Amino acid sequence: MTATAPVDEEKASSRHPVPPLNHKSPWPSLLSFAYSWKMINVARRKVLDKEDLPQVAGSDEAARIGAWMEDAWREECARSDKPNVLRMFVRKFCWWFICLAALQLCEVAAYIGVALIVGELLGGLSDPTASLGYLMTCASTLLLLGLLLNITHHHVFHEGFHFGMRLRVAAMSLAYNKVLRLSLRALTDVSAGQIMNMFSSDFYRMEYGGPFFQFVATSPIHLLVVLVIVYQKIGPASLIGISLLVLLLPAQMVFSSLFVRFRRRTVAEADRRVRTMGELISGIRVLKLYSWEEPLAERVAHVRNREIRALRRSMNLKAVNLWCEFLSSAVIVSITFTVYVLMGNTLTPALIFSTYSLFLPLQLTLTLFFPYAVEFLSELYVATQRLTALLTQSERSTHKRHGIANGNGCTSVPSTDSSDDTQIDTPTPTHHHAIDIHNMTASWEPKTGPVLKSVSLSVKQGELLVIAGPVGGGKTSLLMTILGELEPQAGGVCVREGDGMALVEQEPFIAPVTILENILFGKPADQALVDAAIHASALATDLASMPSHVHTQVGERGVTLSGGQKARVAMARAIYAAAITRKQRQQQQQQGGIVVLLDDPLSAVDANVARHLVAEALLGALADTTRILVTHQVSVVAQMCPQGRLVVLNDGCVVHDGVLGDVAHMPHLLMRGDVVRESEKEAQLEEIHLHEISLDDMADNEDDGNNNSSEQQKPAYEHSCSVLKDTNEEGQEEASKGAIIEAETRQTGTVSWGVFRTYASHMGPWWVICVMCLLAVGAQVMLILSGAYLSQWSQLDNEQQTQPATIGHYWLLVLFLLIFSVSRAHLFFALCLRASQSLHNTVFAKLLSAPMRWFEANPTGRILNRFSKDVSLMDDMVPYTGLDVMQCSLRVLGTVVFVCVVNPVVVVPLIPLAAVCVWLRRVYLRSSRELRRLDGVARSPLYSQLTTTLHGLATLRAFELHDDSRCQFEATQDMHNSAYWTYKQVERWFGFRLDVVVSVFQAITAIGAVAMRQLAVRGREEGTWLGGLEKMAADPGLLGLGLVYIIQMASLFQWTARQSAELTNFMTSVERIIEYARLPQERQVTPAEEQTTLTRAKKTLPHPSPWPSDGVVAFNDVVLRYRDHMPTALKGVSFSLRPREKIGIVGRSGAGKTSLIAALFRLSEIEGGSVTIDGVDSRSLRLRTLRSSISIIPQSPVIFAGSLRANLDPFNEHSDDAVWGALKAVQLEGVANKLTGGLMASLTEAGDNFSVGEKQLVCLARALLRETRILVLDEATANVDTHTDFLIQHALRNHPHFQKCVVLTIAHRLSTVIDADRVLVMDRGAVVEFDSPAELLRRGDGDGYFRRLVDRTGMGERLRVLACEAERKRAGEGEGEGQGRV
Length: 1382
Description:
Elements: H1 9-15, H2 27-32, H3 37-45, H4 62-79, H5 85-126, H6 132-181, H7 192-209, H8 215-234, H9 237-282, H10 284-290, H11 293-342, H12 349-391, H13 399-402, E1 410-411, E2 433-442, E3 452-460, E4 464-468, H14 475-483, E5 488-496, E6 500-504, H15 515-520, H16 527-536, H17 540-544, H18 563-588, E7 594-599, H19 607-621, E8 626-630, H20 634-640, E9 645-650, E10 653-659, H21 680-691, H22 709-722, H23 729-737, H24 753-761, H25 766-793, H26 798-801, H27 804-848, H28 852-857, H29 860-902, H30 907-951, H31 953-958, H32 962-1022, H33 1029-1032, H34 1036-1076, H35 1087-1099, E11 1113-1120, E12 1130-1136, E13 1142-1146, H36 1153-1161, E14 1166-1173, E15 1176-1177, H37 1183-1188, E16 1190-1193, E17 1202-1203, H38 1204-1208, H39 1216-1225, H40 1229-1234, E18 1242-1243, H41 1252-1266, E19 1270-1274, H42 1282-1294, H43 1296-1299, E20 1302-1306, E21 1318-1323, E22 1326-1331, H44 1333-1338, H45 1345-1351, H46 1356-1373
Parallel strand pairs: 4-8, 4-9, 6-7, 7-8, 13-20, 13-21, 16-19, 19-20
Antiparallel strand pairs: 1-5, 2-3, 2-5, 9-10, 11-12, 11-14, 14-15, 17-18, 21-22
Helix pairs in contact: 3-30, 4-6, 5-6, 5-8, 5-12, 5-34, 6-7, 6-12, 6-32, 7-9, 7-12, 7-29, 7-30, 8-9, 8-12, 9-11, 9-12, 9-29, 11-12, 11-27, 11-29, 12-34, 16-18, 16-19, 16-22, 21-42, 24-34, 25-27, 25-29, 25-34, 27-29, 29-30, 29-34, 30-32, 30-34, 32-34, 39-41, 41-42
C-alpha cells in the first residue's frame, strides 16, 4: 500500500530473487566487469522486466544507509549548534574520496607512462640504428600500459558512480525521514514543491558528481608531475603551456561561482514550477470547471520563462567549458611550441608528440574533469544547504515516544522546537486521565496570533468528549496539538504513556489503493474485525454497489468516492485500528489503549447515518476507547448521549464545559458573532438539516425501508469482506476489475528516429540546424589540419621552422578552429533550450486539454515525474550530452580517417575491430535501453509516495505508520537503485571492452609501423622488392600525430559510444515527454465556428443581448458514458429549465446527479442527444466560453497558493471594491481583514490557513464575482458545518445576483431544495420526476418517488409545510420567470 503498508522482508526478497550481479564473482570477472554479461544475456532473449533485476548489495540497501545517516546526523547535531549536511558527508564519506583519489593517481601514472613510451617509439622510428627488439618492446609496452589505463579508468568511474549513488540514497533517506517528522507549521516554510524538486533534481545532481569529486585533489598532483617531465624535455618554454593551463583554474573558479548563482536561480524557479504544477494537477477538476486553465498556464509559463533564462546563463557557461576543452590542447601546444621555436630550438616528431601526449590528459583533467568537479561540488553545496535547511526545520512533538513517564503512567510534553525558547509549563497528570491539557496557548504563525488561548481540560480514559464551536474557533488546532502536530507556546499537553492514536480528518486522507487497504492501513487483516468496522461505519451498501467491493481502487485522494464515503472509510479505518490494537494488546497482556480523534466526520453524512455512526461506532465499537469528537452536529450526539461531555471553543478559548444535554440552552455559543438569522424559516431549515436523512445513504431497496440498519447491511458487508479469504489469483482478479489507476506505459525497443526528428523540429528552422552541423564539421577539419601542419612543421629545418609565414599559417588554422568551435557550442545550446521550452509548452498545453478520465487514471506523482525529472533531464543533460556526442563522434571519425590515410596497413585489421564494436554496441543498447526505462518507471513510485506522504502526513503519524512508510520508501528506493546500478554495471562492461578494442588498434598501428619500417630497411639493404615499402611507410611526424589521436581515442571512443547510448537513454525522457503530446484531448471548437453559432443564435432573440441572456438549460435525450467498457451513466435524459428558475436535483448515490454536471460542463462528451443553453448546443461552443458562462460551488473546495485576490479573480477582471463586496456578501470580510495584506495576503498550498467552511465561502464569493446566468451547487454543503451551510443558503436566497440566476442545486439533503421552484428526481441515470416540490408531494404513494424520499427522511411533515409555504409565496408574487409555476 502506497505510503502506508509495511514491507515484509520475505516478500521483498521474493520480488528480487536474482542476487547482485557481482555476487561471488572471481577477481578477473571483477576487473573486467564480465559479471554483467548475465544481465546482457537476459536482455538478448527477452524484454527486461523488474522481476529480472538483481538485488542491491547489502551495503547499498536504503535501510542500512538511512540508519547510518540518521546516526551521523544526530552526531553532527551534537557536535555543532549549526549542523551542516556537507560537513557530515565529508566526515562520513572521506574514505571513499581517498580511495577514489588513490585509484585516480594510478590512472595518471598510466597516462604518463603511455606518453613516455610514445616518445621512445617515435624516436626509435626516426633513428635508423634502433633495433627491432627495442621497437617491438615499445609497442608491446604501449599495449600493456593501455590495458592498465583501461582498468584503472573504468574502476575509477565505476566506484565513483557507486559513491554518487550512495550519496543520493543517503540524502533521500535523510530527507524522507525528516518529512515524516516535520511539523505542519514547518510545511508552511518548506513547500511540497520544494521538497519534490529536491528529490527529483538536487539529489540526482549529487549522484552525477560522484566520479568527479576527487579531481579537485588529484588535478594539482597531475599538473605538478607533468610540469617536471615537460620542463626536462623543452625547458622554460614548458612554463608557458603549463601557465596557460593553470590560468584556466581561476577562470573555472569564476565560472563555478557564477554557476552556483545561476543554479540556485534555476532550482528556485523549478521549485515554483513544480509546486504550481502539483497544485494544478491536484485541482484540475475545479480548474476545468472554472475555466481557469489560462491564468494557471500563464503562471507556469512565467515561472518557466524565468527558469529558461537562468538555464541559458548556465548553459553558456557549459558551452565555454566545452569549447575550452576542445580547443585548449591545440591552443596551448601551439603557443608552447611557437615560443620553443622562437627561442632557437628545433622541433622533432618525438619531442612534439611525446609532449603532446603529456598535455592531452592534463588538458582533459584541467578543462573537463576539474571543472566538472568544481561544478558538481558547487551543486553539492547548494543541495546540501537546501537539505540542511529542511533537516533543521521544526519537528512534530514526539511526547508520546520521548516524554518521561511519571508514576501515574502519564507522559509530559516537552517542546522540540529549538527555535522557540519559551518555557513550556507541562501539566501534572491526574490518575486515570488519558489526556491532560493545562493553560495551553498555541499558534500556527506567531504573526497571526494564537489559535488556542490558555486552554485547560482533562479527558478521562474511555471518555467521549464532544468539542463544538463556530468556524475558526480552534477545534482542529486543539486536535493537532494533542497529536503533537502543533507545538504549544505556553502550557502543555500530557498524553498517557502507551496509548496509541487514530485520526479521522475533516478532509480525510485516502491513499490511492483499494478500500480494503485503506481500512487495514498497514495493519494485519482480521476478517471479523473488518466486518465489524464496515458495519459500524455504514459502508456495506456502498461496497455492494462497487465493481470489486472492498478491492475497488479509489484513485488518487479517493477521486471515485463521495465526501460522505471518504469520511466513512476514514471512520472504518479508525474503528479497525482501535479493534486490532485492543486485540493485540490483550493477546500480549499489555496495558494501554488508543485515543481516537475525529474532526467533524458527521458533517459529511446525513442525520440518520450520523446517528448510526454515533450508535454503532462512537457508542458501540469504540465504547471502551477514549474519543474526542469535533462536530457541528451536536444535537445528533446529544439525542443519543445526553450525559456525554461537551466543550465549546470560541476564538481559541474554552467558553463552556458541561454535558451534551446543555446544547439546547446555548445556541449562541455555537455560532460566529457575524452570523445572523433573518427569518424563522431559515431557523426551521437549519433544525431540519440537523435531523434529516440524506439521499446518498438511503437503502437501495425501497421495499425494505422498515428493516433496521443492520439487517439491510448484513448481506452486503458479509459479501464484501469474504474476499479477505482470497489470497490467490482470484483475489487479484477482483482487484483488477476495480482498478482506476492505469499502469504507467513503458516503451520497448530502441528510441525511434521519430523522437529525434520531433526534438529537432522544435529546435528551429532546418537551415539553422544545417549551419550548426557545418560549424561542427568545420571545427573538426580545422583541428586535424592544424595537427597535420604541426607534424610537417616538425620536419622542416631550423631556419624554415622560424619563418613568420610558417608560424602565421599555423596560427591562421588555429584562429578558424577557435571561431568554428565557439560558434558551434553556443548555437547548439541555444537551439536545444529552444526545443526544451517549445516541447514543455506544447506538452503542458496538451495536459491542460486532457479529459478528466485521463487525470483520474494517472496519479499526480506520475505526472509530476514527467514535468520534474524528465523535464530536468531534457533541460540539462540532453543539450550537454548531445553536444558532447557530436563533438566526440567527429573527433573519433576524424582520428580513424586520418590514421587510415597516414598508415593504410591498419585498414585491414580495422574492419574486424569495427565489426566487434558494432556488435558490442548492439548488445549493449538492447540491455541499456530497457534498464534505463525500468529506471524511469521505478522512479515514479518515489515521487508518488512522497506526494501521498505529504498529503496524509498527519494521518500517517497519528496511526504510527511513519516507520511503515519509511520501510515502503526504502523498498521503493532499492527497486530504483537496482535498475540504476545494474545499468551502470552494464555500462562499464561495454566501455571497458571498447577501450580494449582501441588499445588493440593502437598496438596494431604501432606494430604495423615498426613492421613496415623494418621490412623496408631489410629490402633496401638486400636490394629486394621489399625496399619499395619505404614509400608506403608512415611519415614519423604523421604517425606520431596518429598515435596521439589514438591514445586520446582510447578513452574517447568508449566515452563517445557510451555517451551516444546515454544520449539515447536521456532521449527516453524526451520520448516520455513527447508521449504526453499525444494525450487524448477534450473536444474543441474553433473561434470561427463558435462565432458563427452565436451570431445565428442572437438573430433569433427579440432584442440584442450577450449570450447567455437567460441561462435556459435544456437536456435533449442525453446519453453519457465515462469509458467504453462502462455502462451508460445517463440514459436518454431530457428536461428543460426556465429563466431565473431554482432547480433542485435529487437522487441516491449513483443516480446520475454528478453526471449531469459532467455533461453540462462537457467534462465528459455525451454519446447522444444534446445539451443547449439559450438554444445554443454546448458542443458548438469553445470549452472556455461554455465553462466561463457557468458558475459552480463544488463539494470539495480548492484553494491555490497565491494571494486571496488571485483565488477570487485570477483574470483580474474586477476592482478591489467588487472583491471586497463579494467577501462581505458571504461574511468573510472580517476573516480577510485579519490576514496580513488583506486581499493580497498569501494563502498556503491547499488553503491550509483557512478552515473547510471558510474555503467553501471563498468558492461562493468566486461565484458572486463571475456574475454568470447559471449557478451549479454540487453538494456544496455536504462537507461543511451547519452554520456555513446556513451562510451559503442565506446568500443564495437573498443576494440580488443569485436571484437573477438559474440555480441547479444537487442536494445532499432534501431540506436544501424543498423551497426550490422545481425538483428533478434522478434514478439510475434517468429522470424519474420533474415538478415543483409541492406538486410532487401530492402524488399517490404508488406514483410519488419524491414523496417516498421525503417520507423516509424522518422529517416528512415539516418538509411538506415548507414546500407548501414556498408554493404560496410564489403564487402570491405572481407567476412568471423564476417563479416555477406549479
